[in-house]
Write a structure and sequence with these properties.
The complex is a heterodimer of chains A (373) and B (253).
Chain A: H1 2-40, H2 50-60, H3 71-106, H4 118-131, H5 150-173, H6 181-205, H7 210-217, H8 226-244, H9 247-253, H10 257-262, H11 267-289, H12 295-307, H13 311-335, H14 345-367
Chain B: E1 2-10, E2 19-28, E3 33-37, H1 44-52, E4 59-64, E5 67-68, H2 74-80, E6 82-84, H3 96-101, H4 116-128, H5 144-158, E7 162-166, H6 174-189, E8 193-197, H7 201-207, E9 210-215, E10 218-224, H8 225-228, H9 231-238
Classes of the chains: A mainly alpha (373), B alpha/beta (253).
């Protein structure tokens, strides 16, 4: 029985190392997110030190110590910056998780809310809601005058676009059922382009709404507040729970449908729910921030190189890193131009994400399909 | 226990001419180790696919442990039956241990994560399948023989009650094949019901007390190995001359 004991010991060590590694990575990215939030809440035209920021945030929650913070600065920190930080973090988390799920379900490394046309569909749905007046006063979408219906329209648009892309991809692949990677992305581009033309058409029909529709094209958090957080949060929470609970199913789907079924997965139903969850996340993100590309592509790919492809770690890690990435992208977007002008955050993510993604592709090409050998 | 009654099966659109299996009747009692043989294209893989539930029956019925498999959910089916596929490409980014852990999927609840019981089953399966040394390796980088050991380990982690193997050892070298069949024999002794498609006649005769031969989608022969493993029978099925003699050590054919 000596070998049994040694065997048990090795097992305990291995599982400890594995769970420590997994939890350690998640904790590290989570801590970086919190620290970044603290710093980002202090950056802007009225800068504050992290200590001041922390005091202002604590005061907002009824705690106070030291010197009271200037009320004006406090408003800037809590009502303006914290809301943006929270919204950009949530949006980044949602987009990264949605991208990870799309890649897993479709077994296609190029899949993402943006490349599949899902973001475009959501933006179109939101535009319709604004133009028909269903979402409330156009200028105050999601604000006091809004009806909260906007994310539902975005979700409907996202699901319709996804259905169209999958149907197109299937038709393009012929009758043998196999869907080629390129076909799917091509279908995504077709649907995206068509929808953005439709958005332009809607725009020209109603000149007054132009200002609020323009930002769907290149996402932005300008002028977003806690109203938007509360508008999107329920949908994001439902979507996150839906896909995080199915992380193990994504692992099985990576084996292919036949093996997944042999191991006990109802593959069709699992795919459907995962796609609905990812569409919820993308739809909610687009509803409050417009179309932001690259987060859903770059974040899961980078993490796969470091953490492997197991989705039980990959999904939560994607949420944390996606949030972190978009949080800093928004800080750059609002502070990089002199004179207080803002860049759309989608421009920043594309500027960072494009070259980074090329680098990743080059690296994975050199090391072969095995990844982190 | 596996009971197949008048099974008709095929691919593509249902059509009598396209059936691959034409009325298979097969009963494998609890605890039997049965070798499934037959020339290429005789329907071995199709029969295993049908029993595993991946290929729906066009006519007839398949019961596993007394339950019609058509009435089971994939999860229930996976709990009563584990399969080792013919050849499988492991996806990139998973370690061997993670791949074997997937065998435990059907044992976990809808919203529960894998628990200590699952991790323990994985370690036991890895060591029984002689794959313990591979545990930390990337599954996508394994050789054909190594991946087969890992897939056997995954099936063991999934369940040992009833095992289906489809040419599971054809990619292994001779020593590994014998090792794998020793493992099957050990499982058989502990009560597993095993149906294994085999190419290697020698291994089949050596290890399987019972053999089932398929030919052109029909049952050709079914019986005790010692009774039916004869030169005449093999010649009828494979249409080539085969010499059969007693094994020098065990005396099996």
């Amino acid at each position: 029985m000596a070998s049994m004991a040694g065997h048990e010991g090795a097992r305990a060590r291995n599982s400890a190392r594995r769970s420590l590694g997994r939890a350690g990575w998640l904790a590290a990215i989570g801590a970086a997110s919190l620290a970044s939030a603290l710093i980002a809440c202090g950056l802007g035209s009225f800068p504050s030190t992290p200590a001041e920021t922390l005091r202002a945030l604590a005061q907002a929650f009824g705690l106070s110590w030291g010197q009271p913070v200037d009320p004006a600065l406090s408003v800037v920190i809590v009502d303006i910056r914290l809301a943006r930080v929270a919204l950009s973090w949530l949006t980044g988390a949602s987009l990264a998780v949605a991208g990870c799920v799309f890649q897993g379900v479709l077994r296609n490394p190029l899949a993402d809310a943006f490349t599949l046309g899902v973001s475009g569909g959501a933006a179109f749905g939101a535009s319709v809601a604004i133009l028909t007046g269903l979402a409330g006063e156009a200028v105050f979408v999601g604000l006091a005058g809004g009806t909260g219906i906007l994310p539902l329209f975005a979700l409907a648009g996202a699901l319709l676009a996804l259905a169209a892309v999958l149907a197109l991809g299937r038709a393009g692949a012929g009758s043998n059922g196999g869907m080629r990677r390129e076909t799917l992305v091509l279908a995504g581009i077709v649907v995206s382009t068509f929808l953005s033309a439709l958005i332009s058409l809607l725009k020209s029909l109603d000149e007054e709404s132009v200002a609020s529709i323009v930002f769907w094209i290149m996402g932005s958090f300008q002028g977003r507040g806690f109203e938007h957080v509360s508008l999107a949060l329920p949908y994001m929470a439902v979507g996150l729970v839906l896909v995080l609970w199915r992380a193990r199913e994504l692992d099985l789907l990576a084996l292919g449908e036949g093996q997944a079924r042999l191991l006990g997965l109802d593959a069709g139903r699992s795919r459907l729910w995962l796609l609905v969850g990812a569409s919820l996340l993308s739809g909610a993100a687009v509803a409050v921030s417009g179309v932001i590309g690259f987060v859903g592509l770059v974040v899961p790919h980078l993490l796969r190189l470091v953490l492997g492809a197991g989705h039980r770690t990959l999904l939560p890690a994607s949420a944390l890193l996606g949030g972190l990435l978009l949080l800093w992208s928004d800080v750059l977007a609002r502070s990089i131009l002199p004179g207080g002008a803002e860049l759309p955050v989608g421009v920043v993510t594309a500027l960072i994400g494009g070259p980074f993604f090329c680098l990743l592709l080059g690296r994975s090409g050199r090391t072969g399909s095995g990844g982190d050998a | 226990m596996i009971r197949v009654t008048n099974l008709h099966c095929g691919y593509g659109r249902p059509h009598a001419d396209r059936d691959v299996l034409h009325g298979i009747d097969l009963h494998i009692a609890r605890g039997e180790l049965t070798g499934l043989l037959g020339p290429n294209g005789s329907g071995k893989t199709t029969l295993l696919l049908a029993i595993s539930g991946l290929l729906p029956a066009r006519a007839g019925k398949i019961e596993v442990a007394g339950v019609d498999i058509a009435s089971l959910t994939p999860r229930q089916r996976a709990l009563s039956l584990s399969c080792v596929p013919q050849r499988a490409q492991a996806p990139a980014g998973f370690t061997v241990r993670e791949l074997v852990l997937m065998g435990r999927f059907a044992h976990t609840g809808m919203f529960a994560d894998y628990g200590p019981k699952d991790f323990a089953a994985v370690e036991a399966a890895l060591s029984d399948a002689h794959a313990g040394d591979l545990a930390e390796r990337q599954a996508a980088e394994l050789s054909g023989g190594e991946i087969q050991r890992v897939l056997i380990a995954r099936a063991l982690a999934q369940g040992r009650e009833t095992l289906l193997l489809d040419e599971a050892v054809s990619a292994l070298d001779m020593a590994r094949r014998v090792e794998a069949y020793d493992l099957l024999a050990a499982l058989h002794e502990r009560g597993s019901t095993i149906l294994s498609a085999v190419h290697d006649l020698n291994l089949a005769a050596l290890y399987c007390p019972r053999l089932v031969f398929l030919k052109a989608g029909r049952m050709a022969l079914d019986g005790r190995t010692t009774e039916i493993f004869t030169e005449k029978n093999l010649k009828d099925i494979y249409e080539t001359d085969i010499r059969v003699g007693p094994h020098p050590v065990t005396g099996a054919p």
